[in-house]
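[retry 2/3] ATP-binding protein: previous attempt timed out, resubmitting with same input.
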Amino acid sequence: MEENLKQQPSNCVKIVLFGPESTGKTTLSIHLARYYNSVWVPEYAREYLQNKWNEERKTCEADDLIPIAIGQMNLENKLSKKTDSVLICDTDLLETKVYSETYYTGSCDPILEKHAIENTYDLYFLTYIDTPWEADDLRDKPHERELMFKAFQDALIKYKRPYVLLKGSKKERLDLAVKHINELLKNKK
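[retry 2/3] ATP-binding protein: success.
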């Protein structure tokens, strides 16, 4: 299992969209991948948990976190081989760790935690809660957006992850993200 959580080396710049639910991460991931004519890594948990909801009418449980983390890393490792420029990740294992600690009494599986801390990315975009809440089968904390945002920001600070806060309209967020990614790409050459 532990091998499945390891991040494989790649030559691309790795970007993570990071933050609470319903803050525009997926929309921005898709727009950034299009802008750079690259690939994006979708959030594996969405598919996994939607299937669980559709089949069992159950939401995420602590036992789901390791399969979700393995699925996420399988996707990331597979898709990182398809680009040598920019890989846009809709999430990462650190986000799974934050959810684990927030939803499940402060705990996180030690193996998940180890890889959440060890896996590295060039830049995180922390998405602010100034986007409208959009309910769906899986989103469940519309009244805890500030608390969840703080948990995500605290994790970035605690683990010294480089990040930029994204606020405002879709265009403002995209423009700021492109500015920072272009800087990374310029420095990579």
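[retry 2/3] ATP-binding protein: The chain has one domain: 2-188.
[retry 2/3] clearing retry counter.
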